[in-house]
Amino acid sequence: MIYKELKIIFLSDMHLVYEKDFLGINTFNSFSSIVDNIVINHSDADYVIFGGDLVQDQTTESYNFFKSEIKKINTPKLFIRGNHDISDKFFINLQKEKVISSVNSNWEILFLNTYSKGNIFGKVKESDLDLLLKKSESLSDKYLFLYMHHNLFITGSPWLDIHITRNKDKILEFLSKMRNLKIVVNGHIHQETKHQYKGINFVSAPSTSIQFTSNEKKFRLDNKKPGFLEINLQEEGRWEVLCHRVGGNFGSPEINPKSY
Ligand SMILES: [Fe+2]
User: Fold this and answer.
1) 260 occurs within a structural domain
2) What's the mean pLDDT when you consider all of the chain?
3) What CATH code is carried by the domain that includes residue 121?
4) Residue-level pLDDT at 46
5) Is pLDDT at 178 greater than 60 in this prediction?
6) How far is the CA of 59 from the centre of ligand 1 (A)?
7) Which residue range(s) make up the domain with 216?
8) How far is the CA of 51 from the centre of ligand 1 (A)?
């Protein structure tokens, strides 16, 4: 069998707000710029993964805008739920979208749900961790790629770190038992970070809207452009992550924002 490497696009934290800026950024325009960039430059991707926190204001207009934008992308799409994705109906409908892929790969794509109803922080059920571990054992001939919404490593910015995945130590213990797990990607913290833990690599994605920073005592926004990740899963468990930033007509971040 011929094994092909996989190309994955991971975009996250759209925080769509209808007809208003969100802390200086027009999130409809910034999301649209990212989608256009993906359509033009990454139509060869095997999967596009939406990392959660899709809609900030919970309006019908924002939900409809999200649906109409993602229709432009003709690639199998996967979705993971963020703390802002509070509409059960919307999210369940999204996940009903059939993912048809004909790719033969020596990689397997898995996810971990960190959504905890009513909370901004993330939490993973122990039963989900058991299932994930069992699944990984049944895939012992594959390299594993895992995606989730919340982060497992602190950023050093206390206003952001209070919203981390609460049972992160337990999760890391489970993940370290997954022998072929190579890379874990998450959203939620609106910045690109890289960590290593027991041979596993953890990468976080920028937001398609407002950007945050590490090691900032006071809440403030970063000046970096909206962005997304391109992840190339290669032979023999090798991989590379590229962070792409996109310009466009979507305003600039507030200098002294109150909160988010
Ligand atoms: Fe989030």
Assistant:
1) no
2) 94
3) 3.60.21.10
4) 95
5) yes
6) 18
7) 6-245
8) 9
Residue 149 CA, ligand 1 centroid: distance in Å:
7
Distance, CA of 199 to CA of 210 (rounded, Å):
31
What is the number of domains present in the chain? 1
Q: What is the pTM of this model?
A: 0.96
Confidence at residue 98, expressed as pLDDT on a 0 to 100 scale: 73
Predicted confidence (pLDDT) per residue in 31-59, tens digit? 999 999 999 999 999 999 999 999 999 99
Q: What is the mean pLDDT of residues 115-120?
A: 95
CA of 236 to the centre of ligand 1 (A): 33
Distance between CA atoms of 224 and 13, rounded to whole angstroms?
15
Output the CA 209–ligand 1 centroid distance in Å. Answer: 12
Task: Give the residues across from 48 on adjacent strands.
Answer: 9, 77
- Residue 113: CB partners within 8 Å, gap ≥ 6? 80, 81, 124, 125, 128, 148
